[in-house]
Design a protein that fits this description.
- With 97 residues, this protein is mostly helical.
- The chain folds into 2 domains: 60 residues, no CATH class; 31 residues.
- The protein has 4 helices and no strands.
- Helix 2 packs across helix 3.
- The protein starts with a helix and ends with a helix.
Length: 97
């Protein structure tokens, strides 16, 4: 796994997609520098979009992502793809309190 996915946080499109996905945001980044680079890239893209809007270019974004994720990660005995994510979210919430 490490051989194939070890450097995945540095793939720009995947890093930015992760930041934009409300399920993940910054939770699953292991490399703070990769996360910061993705945030900077996203800020640059946003500024570029604002420049285009001010120049009168049409806005082509605006996609709503609605996800139906099981709210009770431990409620099923079957394999749950989201259980690891839910655990990280709960740990993050408890650290913020």
């Amino acid at each position: 796994m490490e051989k194939r996915f070890g450097d995945i946080e540095n793939v720009e499109i995947l890093a930015v997609s992760t930041l934009l996905d409300p399920r993940f945001i910054r939770l699953h980044f292991k490399n703070p520098l990769a996360c910061a680079n993705a945030v900077n890239l996203l800020q640059c893209l946003y500024k570029e979009e604002l420049k285009l809007q001010k120049a009168g270019e049409p806005y082509v974004g605006d996609v709503d992502g609605i996800y139906n994720v099981d709210a009770n990660p431990g409620s099923s005995k079957e394999f749950n793809l989201w259980s690891g994510h839910h655990t990280i979210v709960e740990r993050t919430k408890s650290k913020q309190l």
